[in-house]
Specification:
Length: 274
């Protein structure tokens, strides 16, 4: 289903001028053995990842292992952080702590955090601020439920989510902001947004960012985060406003993850030869 409302398109360069990112999100999965095996398998696929920037977001406890063992081209990521700098907040992990153990990037506002832990747009903003205070790269997740899509509220919901943090983006930190579009209805359901559906929303996101600053909007990479895998990555990444993927289940093995990276490389090669 395509949306009825037509977003205003922001003038932009072709996708390949923004280096593609393929970011894995292990969610509540993994072990030291699994991570070591993943990294060993990944190390054998250097030629397949030339086209992309790779990030891997693992549970907090595995961040130090990832930092120690990962190849230099892997950006070390965490899946969440506290909205507090420090204090009496048992169980929380601060931006400074993540930085201290080697994290370079952090997910903020993932749909599972918003739904399962009732995180508000205001809390997402506070977490962005904490991440920025430690110079962490921030991947802010936005997206709509199936009910919101079917009632034509997709753009309303996403605009509200963007408005909560977009004023934090400045010329000094724009390179450390990414936005991941997660159609909630396509996460773990077997459903996948078509490339055209993904592009429609990504274009809307970029148009909203461009309303504040066109130059910065052109720089910000927009990732697609809804059941992206090797079989559909090429088509998704071919869209002008899709700058890579936030990968869930397909990131749990290096083989599946690298299949996505190979599609990105294929796209780069075709774009350069055209």
């Amino acid at each position: 289903m395509m949306l009825n409302q037509e977003p205003t398109a922001a003038q932009k360069p072709v996708t390949m001028m923004r280096k593609l990112m393929v970011a894995g999100n292990w969610k509540l999965n993994g072990s030291q053995v699994m991570l070591r095996q993943w990294l060993a398998d990944y190390a054998e696929s250097a030629a397949d990842r030339e086209a992309v920037e790779v990030a891997l977001c693992v549970p907090y406890v595995y961040v130090p292992v990832l930092k120690e063992l990962a190849a230099a081209d892997v950006t070390v990521g965490a899946q969440d952080l506290s909205a507090h700098e420090k204090g009496a907040h048992t169980g929380e992990v601060s931006a400074a702590m993540l930085k201290d153990v080697g994290a370079e990037l952090v997910l903020v506002g993932h749909s599972e955090r918003r739904q399962d832990h009732f995180e508000s747009d205001a809390l997402v903003r506070e977490k962005c601020q904490q991440a920025l205070s430690q110079n962490l790269t921030v991947v802010v997740c936005v997206g709509e439920s199936r009910q919101q899509r079917e009632t034509d509220k997709t753009f309303v919901v996403i605009k509200q989510q963007l408005d909560a943090f977009s004023d934090l983006i400045t010329a000094d930190n724009v390179g450390r902001f990414l936005v991941a579009y997660e159609p909630i209805w396509a996460i773990g359901t077997g459903l996948t947004a078509s490339a055209e559906q993904a592009q429609e929303v990504h274009q809307f996101i970029r148009s909203q960012l461009a309303a504040k600053d066109v130059t910065m909007a052109r720089q910000i990479r927009l990732l697609y985060g809804g059941s992206c895998k090797g079989s559909n990555a090429f088509e998704l990444f071919s869209m002008p406003d899709v700058d890579g993927g936030l990968i869930g289940g397909a990131s749990l093995t290096a083989e599946d993850f690298m299949a996505i990276c190979r599609e990105a490389k294929k796209l780069m090669n075709e774009t350069q030869s055209s």
